[in-house]
Amino acid sequence: MKASPVTVPALAADLAARAVAAAGEHPARVAVDGAPTAGTAGLAAAVADVLAGDGVPVLHVPAGGFLRAASLRLERGRTNPDAYYEDWLDLRALTREVLTPAGPGGNGRVLPSLWDPVTDRATRAGYVTLPGHAVVVVSGTFLLGAGLDFDVAVHLMQSDPALARRLPADLAWTLPAYGRYRDEVMPEYQADLVVRADDPRHPALVTSL
Questions:
Q1: Could you confirm whether the keyword Kinase appears in this record (predicted)?
Q2: Start-to-end CA span in the chain (Å)
């Protein structure tokens, strides 16, 4: 695997340009995929800032706003890594409320969030109607290889030692889930761009797998 250093602003500008190129008949749907420790939310916010600065309508949708209710995602226990991988993200809701309406033939009416995992209640967020030249940036974990439709995708990869080092101690139980995702999905082959993010402040763009 070959990788070249890249700055976060340069990476955000690259993704923004790809998103603009993909938009037109419908909003571009961009996935920023990776563990929270890889800087997914920060990169997604940077992309949104670039687009907004260029006058492009943009909506950042954290996938954490589409987790399933606690009664469902914690049915197998609070620290079950298989449940974390398989049950936490509500794929149907994310598709129904974000990706389908922003996709071909959709009405552009997107819901920024559905469920607050802290209060375990609906967020009551209002719908946002986006024009065809807009961009929806979805950031989160386990977004690739699950049948979600994206027009542009970047995967932020971390080595096992980096992930283990950066994960908060109370989330160490999730490590096997990230291992399953790496081995079963091989997200680096699903993405348009792959970035090594062992240190999110100093990413490296993978040029050859």
A1: yes
A2: 4
d(CA 125, CA 4) in angstroms, rounded, equals: 40
Q: Alpha-carbon distance 121 to 127, whole Å?
A: 17
Handedness of CA 168, 170, 174, 176 (dihedral sign): positive
Domain coordinates of the chain in residue numbers? Answer: 2-208
Helix or strand run (H / E) with residue 155 = strand 152-157
CA distance 72 to 55: 40
Rg, Å, the chain Cα set:
16
Q: Which CATH class is domain 2-208?
A: alpha beta
Q: Estimate to the nearest angstrom the gap between the alpha carbon of 105 and the chain centroid.
A: 23
pLDDT average, residue stretch 136-141: 98
Surface-to-core class of residue 102, CB atoms within 10 Å of its CB (0-12 exposed, 13-18 middle, 19+ buried):
buried
Q: If pLDDT is split at 50, 70 and 90, which confidence band does 1 have?
A: confident
Q: What is the pTM of this model?
A: 0.96
- Could you tell me which of 165, 143, 146 has the C-alpha nearest to residue 155? 143
Residue with tokens 């609906």: 122
CA 123 from chain centre, in angstroms, equals: 19
The closest alpha carbon to 93, from 120, 118, 122, 58, belongs to 122
- Looking at residue 35, the DSSP 8-state letter turns out to be -
